[in-house]
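README: folding subset

This subset contains proteins for which both the sequence and a predicted structure token string are available. Records are stored as plain text. Below is the entry for Transmembrane protein (Alph_Pro_TM) (257 residues), shown exactly as it appears on disk.
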Amino acid sequence: MNGLVSYISKVGFCLAAFILLLGNTPVLVPDVSQDKISIKGDFTGAQLLLFGAITYPPGTRNQERADIVVVLKGPTQSIVLREKQNVAGIWINAASSEFRSAPGFYAVASSRPIETIVDNKTADIYELGLDHLQLSPAGAIDSKELGRFTDGLVDLNSRGQLYKSLPNQVEITNSVLYKARINLPASVPVGDYSAETFLIIDGRVEAAEIKDITIEKIGMGRFFTNLSQEYGFIYGLLAVFLSVSLGWAAGYAFRKL
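--- output ---
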């Protein structure tokens, strides 16, 4: 009986210490301007506002050197990247690499440049920055080749506005309130996204929170997307039928002219 009481006392002490420890750490309260974005046929892009507050434990000063990093990414997808090689003046497919899980969109906004906020190890752990994305290859590949294909994917998506780095784009007011704006291009992929907010003080991640965001097609765009994904054979037949019908109609119209 005494042993049980002693065990319960130890557990209670550990729980109390854990609660006190939590009470001495800052807390992030993030939010987004919209957690669901609908894409219609006339969609030309959107701007997402990510904002929130930092609450500090009672009796502690607001950290003047607190930094905020916001990462918006998703949806995870498999991507095959192929290199082109010029052979006798003709560009042909050469080496290729497949990534099992790469974000279709990735944007990182920060109150200062990432390299001035955290070291490379911390940036790698939390994937803070385009240079620190952790992409998983589908097969065996040496590190040098993996680095080359990773750089190629980042460059390709950066030129398409799907990967972007936004240093000095998180505004912090009175070391408490923060906000950042991230532009989404018209080509942004549909799916589930995560908006991760990190509070970093003296190079250490002190708090992190996640908000979920969904980007979806509506109307006829959604109908055709679902049809292609769930009924690929029917979608293919419909595409061939429409192509033949339009070709026949165009030919008939020209004969009448």
